Amino acid sequence: MAAKQEKKPVGRPAGKTAKKPVGRPAEKTAKKPVGRPAGKTTKKPAEKAAKKVEENQVFISEADQYVFAQGSHYDIYKKLGAHPSVEDGVKGMFFAVWAPNAASVNVIGTFNDWNEEIHQMEKLGPGGIYKLFIPGVGENELYKFLIRTPAGEKLYKADPFANYAEMRPGNASKTFDISKFKWSDSAWLEERAQKDYNKEPMAIYECHIGSWMKHPDGTEEGFYNYREFADRVVEYLKDMRYTHIELMGIAEYPFDGSWGYQVTGYYAPTSRHGNPEDFMYLINTLHRNKIGVILDWVPAHFATDAHGLGCFDGQCIFEHPDPRIGEHPDWGTKIFNYSKNEVRNFLIANALFWIKEYHIDGIRIDAVASMLYLDYSKREGQWVPNKYGGRENLDAIEFFKHLNSVIHGAYPGFLTIAEESTAWPKVTGSVEDDGLGFSFKWNMGWMHDFCEYMKLDPLFRKNNHYAMTFAMSYNNSENYILPLSHDEVVHLKCSMVNKMPGYPVDKYANLRVGYSYMFGHAGKKLLFMGQDFGQEREWSEARELDWFLLGEEQNKGMHEYVRELLKLYRKYPALYSIDNDWGGFEWLNADDADHSVYSFFRKDATGKNNIMFVLNMTPMMWENYKVGVPKKKKYKLILNSDEKRFGGNGHELPAEITAVKETCNYKDYSISFDLPPYTAAVFVF
Q1: Are 623 and 674 in contact (CB under 8 A)?
Q2: d(CA 559, CA 534)
Q3: Rounded Cα distance, 376 and 327, in Å
Q4: Do 465 and 528 reside in the same domain of the chain?
Q5: Do residues 212 and 97 share a domain?
Q6: Which one of 329, 569, 648, 677 has the lowest number of neighbouring Cβ atoms within 10 Å?
Q7: Cα Dmax for the chain
């Protein structure tokens, strides 16, 4: 992963003499401000200067420096980085960077032929911020910061706050004005602010843009532009009835094989799919079609590439200097120093940047457990206990509380989601109650139990029956999302359909009943792309999904079945409005291990349109199967996973069953019917 130290910046022409910067005025003072009306009286100098600073000029005040050093300058990304500015009536670019240990810093780029001498930055104060205004520099210019250390070493660094980056394998930053896009999603944002997502349907489509579908233009990489992707994916998501899309690998990263989880450009959407305005178009389009956008966000660690954040000014300013605290030995990455004010500010401002400048609706934070535990994936001697002798990372805990407090205080309806794989308490508990403050937590325990059970030969499922019921025993401890993510279909874990036992027809029948269990179970839902039509090969970032499979009967049937599950999920509040309380879920029979059948029902606060699930996890037909039910009512069939249109065998179920006064499973009433092999029967009552 780690690149070698660069000898010179990418793109610097060999053997050329430095030219004057493009558009740089030839030692002339501007005669009048740009846009000054002809023939009008000039304003007083103080008024004119104030207006110019307010409207056009980027500058860094002593207050900016102070608040950044305190860790609470949430708009610092508007100051640091590269921003269009006007000084003395001349347009150009304002550059600023935090490099407290540097001996000097220069801006080098295409606008000055990568000259290392002419654009030296000014150090503003003891906090270590450097700034420089360069006249005549516009958009789409490549640049880097040349940092000279006190020892005389030269470091060629990409801008940590850059809004745009050069397409890999290049690694320079690019100037860009992100303020010009015309948004038209205000109705969506206003509606989002009023929502309590604990009571709303949430069906998330996890997606990697680069491998969702390849462009037919025949290029080697075949990347769709954000705009092209928007038009295609919106149609798909609306047809399938997903509520949200979760995008992997958006913040700029150098290595495709990291899937975007080893970042170098936290403030730049990857240039693989276009420029920042193209990405804004994607989000705006999704919002106008009532689809929420969640970004994978990675504050746990960062890439060690030479142009990135590591040893940024010759010393460890973003990572902890002690490698036992500042490095992940397994991943070959650096760990942020959460004890440092400026680092916390960098990360919290980054989350707010995506919210404010790109209108995203949620962040899913990767590898939360690696942040919470000092000894995560480390052997004895590779980690340092906290001041109390424990393994909890006290600084990371405070970081999460700070992050969630700021976000939820300013943006009600915004989602913060933790991928946390342990039993850490109160991940979604309120900060006031000593929780971490997240909106939701991925239920990794449910995911593990589900996958392990579904892989079993049906003969052995009865001995593992309670693996599938266990998650409900702790369901009310957190606000959960049930994830079947990309992590479950890579690294020889098999695709979802190929985890299933039996012949191909059995595999698809198994997966249909498994998905039925997922959609009936308490918790919001997440499926990775391809899982909804039975992708058979493991996922690879290098190729598109096997869309051709939709021409096959079983895959077409699976696609139709997941669409039907999503339709029912969106239609019936009983399936989503009470997810974290026993008031929304009731077992009818959690103990029928001998038949490997699960039966339960979901309900909402009204008590109307309850949804009952009866799931047969074996290839056996259970004749006259009896289920205890709570009421003497008619139970109307709304879904049969064994229908021909879903790829099933076509066993019919009664369209309506009336309960009889006959005790079963501690219920006063019961229904009975023939339950086909590998079948989910879903009723409304």
Answers
A1: yes
A2: 8
A3: 11
A4: yes
A5: no
A6: 329
A7: 97
For residue 169, whether the previous peptide bond is cis, meaning omega lies within 30 degrees of 0, is yes
At 383-442, the pLDDT tens digits run 999 999 999 999 999 999 999 999 999 999 999 999 999 999 999 999 999 999 999 999
Question: Which residues are tagged catalytic?
Answer: 366, 419
Residues ≥6 apart with Cβ < 8 Å to 245: 204, 205, 206, 207, 233, 237, 286, 291, 292, 293, 294
Strands 142-148 and 129-135: unpaired
Query: Is residue 314 located within the same domain as residue 441?
Result: yes
Shared-domain flag, residues 167 and 206: no
Closest-CA residue to 133 (of 90, 101, 104, 98): 90
Per residue in 472-531, pLDDT tens?
A: 999 999 999 999 999 999 999 999 999 999 999 999 999 999 999 999 999 999 999 999
> pTM of the full predicted structure?
0.90
Q: Are 621 and 677 in contact (CB under 8 A)?
A: yes
How would you classify the pairing of strands 251-252 and 597-602?
Answer: unpaired
Q: Are residues 510 and 630 in the same domain?
A: no
CA angle 112, 113, 115 (to 5 degrees): 75
For residue 674, give both structure tokens. Answer: 């023939």
The answer to whether residue 12 sits within a structural domain is no
How many domains does one find in the chain? 3
Domain that includes residue 599, residue range: 582-684
Tokens read off for 104:
């000097």
Provide the CATH number for the domain around residue 428.
3.20.20.80
